[in-house]
Amino acid sequence: MQILVADDHKLVRDGLRPFLHELDAQADILDAATLGEAIAMVEKSPNLSLVLLDLMMPGMEGLNGLQQIKAKIPNVPVVIVSGYSTRDHVFAAVQAGAAGFIPKTVSGAAMVNALRLVLSGETYLPSSSFFEDPANQGSLPPAAKSAVVPPPFDKLSRREGEILAQLVEGRTNKEIAIALSLQEITIKVHLRNVYRKIGAANRAQAVRIALQSGWIMPPVIN
């Protein structure tokens, strides 16, 4: 497997390598620090399986860089990995051809889960907890607030939804308990209910069902 990581920060490129090797221990990880370098690497790498692309690196000019790369490799999934993840940015990127959008604030385990989903042919969108809300954008759009939660996730209580969202981000029961100020045994009880309600046999299946459905944790409506 060949994976291209296009990001102008070497620390980010190097930091992603251990997680990408979880996808394939023998993966050939290619580097690019600008759009020009990324395009050159795409042109000379016919066996690419996946591209991770930073929207803010030199030469990108918004989504133009993504479109240029997709034009050259229409059948290779390109995933945006960005430190800036408003709802509008995410959906615009997917409409422009991205196979997913991963905020740089996610855990390594969550990123690996998301990339496995993308490699299986699905599209990954981050949970709503990762969407930024800049002052110039105000609150979430009315459409997002009024969105109907799709079945079977409409069966989940608010707390169960919060725990599932944490699960998708790759957190352990102990980490979820700390984050939500609950006892670990309480997390286990809630998870059993989550599995039953969404038809999952175990933790891994629950994550996959949530990712494949595009489910995101609905915002609290005041």
Explain what this protein looks like in three dimensions.
By secondary structure, this protein is α/β, with parallel strands linked by helices. It has 2 domains: 2-130, 3-Layer(aba) Sandwich (Rossmann fold), CATH 3.40.50.2300; 147-213, Arc Repressor Mutant, subunit A. The protein is 46% helix and 11% strand. The chain contains 10 helices and 5 strands. Strands 2-1-3-4-5 form a 5-stranded parallel beta sheet, with helices on both faces. Helix 3 (64-72) links the parallel strand 3 and strand 4. The N and C termini lie far apart (47 Å). Mean pLDDT is 82; it is low at 129-148.
What's the overall average pLDDT, rounded? 82
Give the number of domains: 2
- Number of helical stretches of at least 4 residues: 10
Strand order, largest beta sheet: 2-1-3-4-5
Q: Unreliable segments (pLDDT under 50, ≥5 consecutive)?
A: 129-148
Ordered list of secondary-structure elements with their pairings:
Blueprint: E1 2-6, H1 10-23, E2 28-32, H2 35-43, E3 48-53, H3 64-72, E4 78-82, H4 87-95, E5 100-103, H5 108-119, H6 142-146, H7 158-168, H8 173-180, H9 184-198, H10 203-213
Keywords: DNA-binding, Phosphoprotein
Domain HTH luxR-type: 149-214
Organism: Paramagnetospirillum kuznetsovii
